[in-house]
Design a protein that fits this description.
8-stranded parallel β-barrel; TIM Barrel; binds phosphoenolpyruvate; alpha/beta; about 250 residues
Length: about 250
């Protein structure tokens, strides 16, 4: 049985005030859906500390991680550093990092391995552009991204990763993928991942303009195990409403 999970990606947003607001606002959360917030690295400590002070069950994650363990890599933050601040998850391979920072699947796999080595859970993002979808190559493209990363993971990662399907044309655009498009791609991702991980037990999230209005229709799909939420995760009531739709 896969436990549903809703992950908020705050991107380059958020303040200590917002961390405290979420930590206290989620203290009374009694739902069955796992909740995780990924604030900027500078705010992980604050959110994790406030969540603990409020006995709030929200998990905390990083939005990125260094591909290396340690050393002369100015500006990087390692998996063990994120963990020391209180993070248990790490987003890797987000389309913004692939497009804006030139991250390749090989780098995404290195980052996922660094997280796995310290016992953190990578949330591995994949997704096609509108051009690829219009050309009818989305299944092949996303399948290749999944294979390129999973084939490079260290052995014995049974169920230890989370996959997130985030079509680029749906991220931050308001153009959510249809339930048919999502279910079909999630089933495909699970099939492609099967040679590398226990894909039946692995959670596959959908991300791309998820809102309280469309969450229920997406999260009820058989191969959708939760959501990766950008914009709507910056507002506590919207984030909670999305989780309520699971
Ligand atoms: C994201 O950035 O991971 C995302 C899904 O963003 P949004 O929900 O704003 O589309």
């Amino acid at each position: 049985m896969r436990k549903q999970i809703v992950v908020g990606n705050w991107k380059l947003n958020g303040t200590t005030v917002l961390c405290h607001q979420f930590a206290s606002g989620l203290a009374d959360y009694k739902g069955s859906v796992e909740l995780v917030i990924c604030p900027p690295a500078t705010h992980i400590d604050c959110l994790a500390g406030a969540a603990s002070a409020h006995h709030s069950k929200v998990g905390v994650g990083g939005q990125n991680v260094a591909a290396q363990f340690s050393g002369a890599y100015t500006g990087e933050v390692s998996a063990s550093m994120l963990q020391e601040l209180g993070a248990c998850y790490g987003i890797v391979g987000h389309s913004e990092r692939r497009a804006l920072f030139g991250e390749t699947s090989e780098m995404v796999a290195q980052k996922a391995n660094r997280l796995l080595e310290v016992g953190m859970t990578p949330i591995i993002c994949v997704g096609e552009s509108s051009l690829v979808r219009e050309g009818g190559e989305h299944g092949k493209f996303v399948g290749r991204q999944v294979t390129e990363v999973l084939s490079r993971l260290a052995p014995s990662v049974e169920s230890a990763v989370i996959l997130a399907y985030e079509p680029i044309w749906a991220v931050g655009t308001g153009n959510t993928a249809s339930p048919e498009q999502v279910q079909s791609m999630h089933a495909h991702i699970r099939a492609v991942a099967a040679p590398f991980i226990n894909s039946v037990a692995t959670r596959v999230l959908y991300g791309g303009s998820v809102t309280p209005d469309n969450a229920a229709s997406l999260l009820e799909l058989p191969d959708v195990d939760g959501a990766l939420v950008g914009g709507a995760s910056l507002e506590l009531d919207k984030f909670l409403a999305i989780a309520g739709g699971c």
